[in-house]
Amino acid sequence: MKKAAATVSAQTETFIPAHDFAGYPFGRKVDFRAGVESIPVPAEFAQLCREKGHVASTKSAPDAE
Question: Who has greater pLDDT, 7 or 55?
């Protein structure tokens, strides 16, 4: 039997971290560096980072279609 594929949000965004921190947006460790634009991450992860005060500014927002 085939396993059901996990549903993943197609919306991603980048942000500028306020300080260095490690996160797990894809289930593996990613190091984010203060002042350096992040890799594209799921919108839900970026929102969590904002809520925890890790984000200095948002670089790009999800596409609005």
Answer: 55
Which DSSP string do the residues of 14-39 spell out, in sequence order?
EEEESS-EEE-TTSS-EEE-TTSPPP
Specify whether the CB–CB gap between 39 and 30 falls below 8 A. Answer: yes
**Residue 61 carries which side chain, given as an amino acid letter?**
A
Rg (CA), the chain: 13
Buried b (16+ CB within 10 A) or exposed e, 6-44: eeeeeebbebbbbeeeebebeeeeeebeeeeebebbbee
Flag whether pLDDT at 5 surpasses 50.
Answer: no
